[in-house]
Amino acid sequence: MLALVIMRKTAFANGEFYHIYNRGTDKRTIFANSYDFQRFLQSMQEFNSIDPIGSIYQNSFNKLQLRRPTSKLVNIVCYCLNPNHYHMILEQRVNGGISEFIKRLSGGYTKHFNFKHKRSGVLFQGKFKANHIDSNEYLLHASAYVNLNGLVHKLKDNQFHSSLDEFINTAHKEICKKNIILSQFKNRNEYQIFAKDALKNILARKELLKEMEDLLALEN
Fold first, then answer.
1. Which three-class secondary structure state does DSSP give residue 119?
2. What confidence tens digit (pLDDT) does each residue in 12-50 have?
3. CA dist., res. 163 & res. 2, Å (int)
4. pTM score, two decimals?
5. What structural domains and CATH numbers belong to the chain?
6. CA nearest 40: which of 51, 28, 52, 32?
7. How many angstroms separate the CA atoms of 205 and 60, rounded?
């Protein structure tokens, strides 16, 4: 029987997948440079532990003591970090795993960002958003949307970081648990073709929506 943790209108269940996303408060930039991107990626890895680690600085000493690996709160399936928002697909592994992971990630990164950029206060816009991915078709298309989200927003390669390279390049550093996606394709190239085709459909729908909004604005 699946264990459920109720949060807002979303019931987070162990073994289920969720599209998680949030943006900077007042739509502000949350990744100002490549160091910020790398710090957030490091935080995604280090804070994903059942055992509390304190800060990343404190955890560096724990690593020197050769602590045994601990169980993860979530499986990270894919991600995209854009200048003012992020997307992830997460699979919850333990009760409360998603909520605890995002709490640690957001809190730790906010402390880093505020110190580095000499600011104070909240960085993210309220509670993170979560959509339950309730079918395999939804999971596949959501992975394409997240992996290619920087292109959805027509950003240049150096303006965002996503897990697409990890999906299509075997030499890329491992952060994601990709097998649930890649095992459904003959090879990585086939997935890349699928993702790019899905992106075309996403962009076409966005353009159609914009046209409809423009027409409605003319009629009002």
1. coil
2. 999 999 999 999 999 999 999 999 999 999 999 999 999
3. 28
4. 0.86
5. 4-210 (3.30.70.1290)
6. 32
7. 46
